[in-house]
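sry for the spam today, last one i promise. struct tokens for design, 99 residues
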């Protein structure tokens, strides 16, 4: 082999090794980015949930009790009443699906 061929082979081998190391480093960086993005998304979701919960805490439950009647009721709901409300919900569900 001539000197030119040896140098060409060394340069190609060095380039291949450098490319392999770079690809491994890139894959690790992408994995770290995915983990960081996932953590940030989870954190933002929790913060937004806290904001909504703070707003919900400020709602006056007396107005809700007046509107929906017996919202804070402690005794069991009679089966007939439960089934009546369930039919209403199913009816509205069918309307929304067919809409």
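last one done:
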């Amino acid at each position: 082999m001539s000197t030119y061929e040896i140098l060409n082979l060394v340069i190609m081998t060095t380039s291949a090794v450098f490319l392999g190391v770079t690809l491994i480093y890139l894959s690790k960086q992408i994995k770290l980015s995915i983990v960081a993005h996932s953590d940030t998304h989870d954190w933002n979701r929790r913060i937004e949930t806290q904001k909504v919960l703070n707003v919900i805490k400020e709602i006056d439950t007396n107005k809700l009790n007046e509107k929906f009647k017996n919202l804070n009721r402690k005794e069991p709901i009679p089966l007939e009443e439960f089934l009546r409300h369930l039919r209403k919900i199913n009816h509205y569900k069918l309307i929304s699906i067919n809409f």
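The chain has three helices and no strands. ok im logging off now
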